[in-house]
Structure formats: structure tokens, C-alpha cells
Design goal:
- There is one protein chain.
- Strands 9-10-11-7-12 form a five-stranded mixed β-sheet.
- Helix 4 crosses helix 5.
- It contains seven helices and 15 strands.
- The protein has one domain.
- It is α+β, with helices and mostly antiparallel strands.
- The chain is globular, with a radius of gyration of 20 Å.
- The N and C termini lie far apart (45 Å).
- Helix content is 36%, strand content 20%.
- Strand 5 and strand 6 form a beta hairpin.
Length: 305
Amino acid sequence: MTTARKHHYVPKFYLEGFTREERGSLVVYDRARKQYRSQKPVNILHIRDYYALEQEDGTLNYDIEKAFSQIEGAAKAIIVKLDEGGSLTDVERLELALFTAFQFTRTPAFLATIEAADRGLAERLTDLLAPSGHTLSDVVDKNGDPIGSFIRHRDDLLRLALKLAMEMAPALSQMNMAVIERPTDRTSFVTSDSPFCLVAISPSRHVGVGVLSDNSLKLMPLSQKSCLFIQGKGGGFTRSTADREQVRSINLTVAMRCRDFLIGRDQSLVENLVAAEQLDRTEWQPPIQVSNPGSAYARRPQTRA
């Protein structure tokens, strides 16, 4: 059996939900190159061996990619069901929560955010230690062992991503879920290379917003037809139809969160969102900032919903 080595960090089946059926392609805005392209889902948002872990003998382990394939298979059927007006069973709630959790933690944007936080913490501690003549090599953990570099190996980042998503999913499944539908097929939701969006409901400049906080809205477009909202404890499920302004507000939130690629059905829509969020004139910044050693993972709230 051939091992798949082209690992999509946003699944191909998911991206297919944002295409025009007659042509099967997407409009992709490349933020780094400042260009628009028409591309097939199979050809975007993938990295060779991205989820392969190096074993002691130097060979690569592809178990993570195989596990993602199973998660995506369940999610595909659920998204089709929701797009057709269906509801969720308890099992489907957990499967959808797991899929959305991984779309938060498995992307290059999330891993780059953790790397940036690690670097920021290392720089901050280096500054604090400098007056005493000590360096990071002098810092030890609770067991008295040197902690060494704060910069994690890529494989360690992947393990962290797995751990966080597995911990998040059960909690997300117990929150209230709402499917927001587009008003007509003339409008559509967009997506990106970082489709899970965290929005502060009551933003504070002093307190960050956590993924599982009641003060945060979790949203993720499921397809061009619908978007998932997760917020607050309760385990409820509702459906509603957005008006055109609400669809635009959601699309602007998705655009604001994209790292490298904004993706949609129509070029005019993608161009409008790029201009509105000035993606062609700004660079992506990690949403986590190191303010002091005790709050290394304070998330900057993003307030549009």
C-alpha cells in the first residue's frame, strides 16, 4: 500500500465545499506573493510529510496522517448532512468537535504561533536574567534539570497539537452549537489556511480569551453554504439563516485570521475581502504575545464576529 506523503493541513474534501461545481476550482489569494490564483483543492494547502514523525531509526511514522484521514472521513459526512438541513447526534457532535479542534491546532499558523511564543518567552527571560549574569542554560525545571532551549522540535510541536485538540474536543462537544446558513446561493462563505476563528465576545485589553472560555465565540466555515458557531456551555443545537451583512461579517473575520491564503468561490468576493482587511499591505502576526514570564500565552482578542 502506497503511503500518502502530500499532507493537507486543511483537508481536500473540506476545500471542495468552497468550489463552484461547474469548474471545481477555488480562488486563492496568496498573501506572501500578493497574487490571485485559480487552483484545484488537491493542489493547495499541503506540505510533504508534514505530519510524519521521525523515529529512532530515522524512518518516518505516518500514523498521525492516517488518524487524520479517519477524522476527516467522519467530518465529511457530517458537513454534508448539516448542509442538507440535518441535525447532530451525540456521536456526531464529538466527531465534529474533534475535526474543528484539529483545524485549530494542526495548521502551520498554530505551530508558528507556539514557536513565536516560545521565542518571545526565551527573549524575555534572557533580558530578565542578564543583570544577574545568568543565562537560559542556568534555568532548571521543577526536577532540577536544565530546561535548555525554549524552542521546541517540530515533532514536539505536532505532539502538542495532538494533545491540545484531544483535550479540547470533548469540551467543545458539550458547548452550544449553531449552524449559520447563507441566505441564497448568490452569497457564499470563504475559508482560509487557518479556518478555526476565535472571537472575543467582551474584549479586554488586560485579559486574554481562551478557546474554552464562555467569553469567546468559536466559528469555522463548514462550506460555502454554512458556518459553525460554538459558544457557551449547554450542548444545544440551533440553525438560522444569516442575512448578507452577517455573511460578510463572518467572511471578514475569516479573512482577518488567515496566515498565508484566503480562499473562496468568487474572485470578486475574495478581492473585496483582501482590500477590506488590507491583506495585501500587512503581514500576518501571531495572535499570542509574550507580555511577561507569567503570562506567556495571553491571546490577543479579535473582536469581529
